[in-house]
Design brief:
By secondary structure, this protein is mostly helical. Helix content is 65%, strand content 0%. The longest helix has 25 residues. The radius of gyration is 25 Å and the shape is rod-shaped.
Length: 57
């Protein structure tokens, strides 16, 4: 009977460790520092692909 209690305790510790490690990996730190202009990014990407931007009309 002791092996059953011991294995349940070990499995509980593994579950707790997996949950804490999973939460730390999934955390986002908010937005990226600095200024980001979506219009400039879009313009740069479209010009690299050689596509004409029809959304400005």
């Amino acid at each position: 009977m002791e092996w059953f209690i011991g294995s349940a305790l070990v499995m509980g510790i593994i579950v707790v460790l997996a949950l804490t490690v999973g939460k730390k990996k999934g955390q986002k730190k908010g937005s990226v520092p600095g200024f980001f202009s979506f219009d400039q990014y879009k313009e740069k990407e479209l010009s690299q692909r050689g596509v004409f931007d029809k959304t400005k009309w």
